[in-house]
Every structure is written in structure tokens, then in C-alpha cells.
Amino acid sequence: MSRTPPRQTTRQPLADRVHSALLGQLLDGSREPDEVLNLVYLAREFEVSQTPLREALARLESTGLVLREAHKGYRVAPLPSMEDLRKIMDARLVLEPALAFEAALRVTPEFLDRLAATIGHLESGAHLPGSPPLTSFLRADEQFHAAIAHQADNSFLEDAWKSFGGQAQRFRLYARTSSTAPTTTVAEHGAILEALTRRDAEGASSAIRIHIENAKVRALHDREAVATGD
Which option is the CATH number for 82-229: 3.40.50.300, 3.30.1330.40, 1.20.120.530, 3.40.30.10? Predict the structure, then answer.
């Protein structure tokens, strides 16, 4: 996959642009598990100094997507084990129903439009011939959950979600077969959106819990496929 340097604009701090670009590469499979992240090469790739790179990598380290080793520097984290994945999904089952509940109390038309747009992207992929483009599917799925986490308006809960959100997605890019089940995901996201549209906090919390429980089963299936292919 091509690696595009972050666009140079005056609207976003340099470290934020580098962080966004690296995060995208980690989630779309451009950076392989255990790949060494050489600061000199990254500085050339992104046409920045090492200072914003170090800041961006430190932020990514807090998510578990990047590891830092003494005297060795940074590298891409390995894929989570089956047991780690179970724990990640269990953490989502605790956190995301609470986020959906709070988001339902703060619904705005703009928020609902954002969620509907992500579902539209998922639905478009679900009706393409053959398998949908996995990276775009995962990106839309991530954006849906990120929007809910943000709308909850609790930075501590949102940061907690960010700390493991991407970990539950990465390995799917390496699965020999995908149980992503786009049509099922579209329906589950739709049920969450319907509850949020009604401002039904309990309903939104219940709908997202069902979705995460089902996603856990699919995720473990995909992780097993990766382990089988190793």
C-alpha cells in the first residue's frame, strides 16, 4: 500500500498531522507488526524534524499500537494474542454501552448525520461484488464508534476508548478469510443509530452491547484465522 506523507497545512499542529498519518498506516496495514520505526527514515518520509515524530510516537505508544524499547527505539506492536483480544473486547463491552448512553443524552443533528454517513459507507461496501474493501470498511466502522465516544463529552472515557480501539481492528487485515460480515454490521449500527435518534439512552446502550458481543465473536474468528495462517 502507498504511504502518503501528511498534508502540509496551517490548520493542524505538525505533531498532530504526523500522528494522524502514522495512525492511519498502523490501522490500514501499511506498517507491518514488529516493523522498526526508524526516526531518520520517518523524518525523510514525512518531511519533518524528529521532534514532532517523537511526540506522535509517544502518543501512539499510549494506545499500545507502538512499542518503545530502551536503546532500540520504536517499533510497531505485534498483533494481539487471542487472550489479549478477548480482554480488549470485554473492555469495550464495559465502556461502549456507557459511552452510547451518554451520547444519547447529547444528540445533535450533526452527530446523527455523521453516524448515518459512516453507515452509508459500510452499506456501499456491503453491496459491491465480492468482498468489500477491508481497509475502508474498518475505517468507517472505527469512525462510527469514535463519533459516539466523542459525543459522550467525557474526555476520560474517550481517551480510554482510544487506548484500545485500534487494537481490535488491525489483525483483520492479515486474516486469510474475513468474518467482518458487512451486512450484519450495517444492521447493528443501524439499530444503534435508531436508538440514538429517539434519544433512547437505555436502548442505545443495549444496542451497542449486542453489537460488541457479536463483534467479539467475529473478531476472535478472524484472529484464529491469522493464527492458523502463521
Answer: 1.20.120.530
